[in-house]
Each structure stands twice: as structure tokens, then as C-alpha cells.
Amino acid sequence: TSAVVGFEALLRWQHEVHGAISPPEIVTAARETGLLSLLTETVFLNCCAMAAELVRQGRPDVRVAMNLSPRELEAGNVDDMILEGLKARNVPA
Q1: Rounded to an integer, what is the distance from CA 66 to the centroid of its chain?
Q2: Contact partners, residue 31, CB within 8 Å, separation at least 6
Q3: Could you say which of 11, 19, 58, 68 is the most buried, measured as most Cβ atoms within 10 Å of its Cβ?
Q4: Which residue stretches of 15-59 are H helix?
């Protein structure tokens, strides 16, 4: 079938001067400037918003995938971010 069963969040940046900026470059720059947690949370909340829209459309079965760096996992607050993000957007866990 052509039914959507899931999606993965992919971070892309098309810079008007430098062209396509690769995900590793984006993550490195975010880490070096202290913005990695904010970037991760922003991407995750956007995923939650998309998932919430699918729930509203009667598709609660659609799965969402998002990669996290080992440093983000080691930070120890990822589980709180996930639970709070899902709750804020009314997305079932």
C-alpha cells in the first residue's frame, strides 16, 4: 500500500551563501556554540507537532524516529524532554 507508517526527522540547512550544510556540520556548530540542547528540543517539538497532526487526522499508529547524539543521551535529560514534548502536544507515548 501507499500508506504512511512512519517518518524520520532529518535536519537539513540550505545556506544562501555556503549551499547545503551537512547534518554533522550543523550538530558540531550547535555543540560548539552551546546550542545543541536547544536545537535537539526544537527538532523534537516539531516532530511532536507533526505527530499530533497525524493523531488529529485519525492516524495515531504512525511512528516518528529521530537520531540523537551520544552526548545528548549522556546529558541525562532526554527522557524528560521526550515526555514533556509528547504531553505538551497531546501525543500518545
Answers
A1: 5
A2: 69, 71
A3: 11
A4: 23-32, 36-56
Structure letter (DSSP) for residue 22: P
Pair 62, 51: CB distance under 8 Å: yes
Rounded Cα–Cα distance for residues 34 and 25 (Å): 14
Do residues 81 and 36 touch, judged by C-beta distance below 8 A?
A: no
pTM, to two decimals? 0.82
The residue type at 12: R
Domains of the chain, residue spans = 9-88
Residue-wise pLDDT for 23-72, tens only, equals 999 999 999 999 998 999 999 999 999 999 988 999 888 888 998 888 78
60 phi and psi angles, rounded to 5 deg: -70, -10
Of 69, 70, 68, 64, the closest CA to residue 86 belongs to: 64
Question: Alpha-carbon distance 13 to 21, whole Å?
Answer: 5
